[in-house]
Amino acid sequence: MGYRWQWERVPNYLAFYEDGEWWPAELLEGLLVTIKISALALVFTLLFGLITALLKTSNSVVGRGIAHAYVEGIRNTPLLVQIYLLYFVFGPIIGLDRFSTAVFALALFQGAYTAEILRAGLNGVPKGQFEACRSIGLSRFYTYFDVILPQVVRRTLPPLTNEVVSLIKTRPS
User: Fold this and answer.
1) Dihedral sign computed on CA atoms, order 32, 38, 39, 44
2) Could you report the per-residue pLDDT of 96-144, keeping only the tens digit for each?
3) E strands, 11-78, where?
4) Membrane-spanning regions, if any (predicted)?
5) 115 in any annotated domain
6) Mean pLDDT, rounded, of the chain
7) Is residue 162 part of a domain?
8) Would you state the pLDDT for residue 66?
């Protein structure tokens, strides 16, 4: 291929100097928006994922059904369709702007995958851990918060790291 890349033009898209000040250009502004959307979506992804994983492992038939419908519904539809539905259909109804729609769409999408990772981590904790917590009188909240979830985080950290990378890479423009 005979094309010569014009590297001297790249700095013009990072920042430019005007009126005695440096201003971010398109690439730098895009990077900042990507970081903002990804950081907020990550928080909501972990929240949706944890709630859904706890519902999927609960004794409640209704909770398991809702969690199963959410995970299967999100995982079996393309992200672009979900973004279009949120932006053009549900966004105007609930008053979401473009930024919030992007964060919410990514959080819903990645939350379904994160829920399955966390569910697998919860199922990987031996039942003896739950029984030991119950026998020493720990409440259900402290059982999960102090004993179970630290083990789940340790077991699921590598796949959760992959989900963070996937979250950044699948950011809607």
Assistant:
1) positive
2) 899 999 999 999 999 999 999 999 999 999 999 999 999 999 999 999 9
3) 15-18, 21-24
4) 31-55, 76-96
5) yes
6) 91
7) yes
8) 97
154, 129 contact by CB (below 8 A): no
Query: Alpha carbon 51 to chain centroid distance?
Result: 13
Nearest to 106 by CA among 52, 156, 162, 46: 46
What is the tens place of the pLDDT at every residue in 5-30?
A: 888 888 888 888 888 888 888 888 88
Residue 117 falls inside a structural domain = yes
Please provide the distance, in angstroms rounded to a whole number, between the alpha carbons at the two ends of the chain: 30
Q: In this structure, what DSSP letter does residue 7 have? A: G
Residue 71 sits in a domain whose CATH number is 1.10.3720.10
How many independent structural domains does the chain possess? 1
Per-residue b or e along 35-58, where b marks 16 or more CB atoms closer than 10 Å to that residue's CB: eebbebbbebbbebbbbbbbbbee
134 within some domain: yes
